Each structure stands twice: as structure tokens, then as C-alpha cells.
From TrEMBL:
<dbReference type="GO" id="GO:0097035">
    <property type="term" value="P:regulation of membrane lipid distribution"/>
</dbReference>
<dbReference type="InterPro" id="IPR050846">
    <property type="entry name" value="TLCD"/>
</dbReference>
<feature type="domain" description="TLC">
    <location>
        <begin position="34"/>
        <end position="229"/>
    </location>
</feature>
<feature type="transmembrane region" description="Helical">
    <location>
        <begin position="133"/>
        <end position="149"/>
    </location>
</feature>
<dbReference type="Pfam" id="PF03798">
    <property type="entry name" value="TRAM_LAG1_CLN8"/>
</dbReference>
<keyword id="KW-1133">Transmembrane helix</keyword>
<keyword id="KW-0812">Transmembrane</keyword>
<dbReference type="GO" id="GO:0007009">
    <property type="term" value="P:plasma membrane organization"/>
</dbReference>
<keyword id="KW-0472">Membrane</keyword>
<feature type="transmembrane region" description="Helical">
    <location>
        <begin position="203"/>
        <end position="224"/>
    </location>
</feature>
<dbReference type="GO" id="GO:0005886">
    <property type="term" value="C:plasma membrane"/>
</dbReference>
<feature type="transmembrane region" description="Helical">
    <location>
        <begin position="169"/>
        <end position="191"/>
    </location>
</feature>
<dbReference type="GO" id="GO:0055091">
    <property type="term" value="P:phospholipid homeostasis"/>
</dbReference>
<dbReference type="GO" id="GO:0071709">
    <property type="term" value="P:membrane assembly"/>
</dbReference>
<protein>
    <submittedName>
        <fullName>TLCD2 protein</fullName>
    </submittedName>
</protein>
<dbReference type="InterPro" id="IPR006634">
    <property type="entry name" value="TLC-dom"/>
</dbReference>
Amino acid sequence: FSPGLLVVAGSFAAFRLLNRGLERLVPPPPSARHKRWKWRNIWTSLAHSALPGTHSLSPCRFYLHPELSHDLVSKHPPGAHSLVAVSVGYFLEDFVDMLCNQKLHQSWELLFHHSVVIICFGIAVLLHQYVGFALVALLVEINSIFLHLRQILLMANLVHTTCYRLNSLINLGTYVVFRMATLAWMSRWLFLNRHNVPPAAHAVGTLGMAIMTPMNIVLLYRLLRSDFLK
């Protein structure tokens, strides 16, 4: 039994409660009332991505703890293990929320994505290893802030506004820096350290990168086509 599982369970419950109460905190506009669950789901995801002092400040951890650049397997800063466990709880909650409220053919990509993340992060939580590698992966959440804001603006029917246009530009910039570049760096690290990582763990990491990279390239194309190429 790992104490990290308690953090995962607590995180799942906390995000579930937040999801249930968000409609009162942020009432959906008329254009989003036909998809109330989606409105709550996006705001819950935004709360996870923008969690102060954790996801959004992940880059600071690498400046304060330069040893992470050399050892992403056994070393991690204080609180990093709990941070990864909190994320596992969120992805489990989001998985259940989509499974209960959306048809499978509409959500299979995200369900597949969440399954990969839950497995990879779950290994880090249970083994207390590869937490540093999971921290690098959480840099992606910086871009997720603007991805979720984009969805909120779309649901609020605010596409033809300066706010949406500005968010689109920031979203594209952070997508390239914090999502594509991060995935490329993680793939490179796995390749360079293939002799230092156990075969099973290396296989899981390589498979995860092989799945995530094409998915994010496709998503980048969809964003470019929707926000810039029209």
C-alpha cells in the first residue's frame, strides 16, 4: 500500500466535489446551457491546469533543483510526488466524468489519452520513481490553461472577440513551447537513457511518447485549421 494512493483518492473526491459545485460558482451562459456537464468539465480541467504553486510553477522546480536534469528517475523535489498523485486523481475524475456523460465515439481520444497518463503517472506514484519525468510531463499543463480557456470562450459564443484572438495566439505559442517541445525533450531523454532505465519502464515510456506525440500533432493541426487557416 502506498500513501500516494490516499492522495489520489482525496484528489479524485476533491475534483468531483468541485465539478458538482461549479455550476453555482460559474453559471453557464445561455449558449452553453444545453451542455451543462461539459461546461462544468472544462472549468474543472482549468482548475487542475492552473492550480497555483503546482502545475503552473513546475518550470521553477527545475531551476531550483538542477539535479533533476541529470536524474529524472530517483530524484525529485519536495512535494513533487504529491503533485503527481493529485494529477492522477484529476485524470481519473475526468475519465469517469466523460464516461458517464459523453458517448464513446465522441470521447475515445481523450479517454485513451487519460488512460496512458494514468498508467504512466500511476507507476511513478506507486514506485516513487520517475517522479521527475512526470514533472516534466506536467509542463504541458501550462498550455492546457489556454486550451481550456479556448473551449470556454467557444461555448460562451465569444469567438469573434479580441479576447479569443489573443488567447488563440498565446495558446499556439505555449502549445509549441510547453507541449511539442516538452514531448520532444522527453522522447530524447528516453532514447539517451535507454541503458539506464529498466526495460519494462522504458517500454511503457516509449509507448506513451509514441501515442502522445501523434495525438498532439493532430491537435496542433486542428487548432491551426480552426483558428488561423480559415
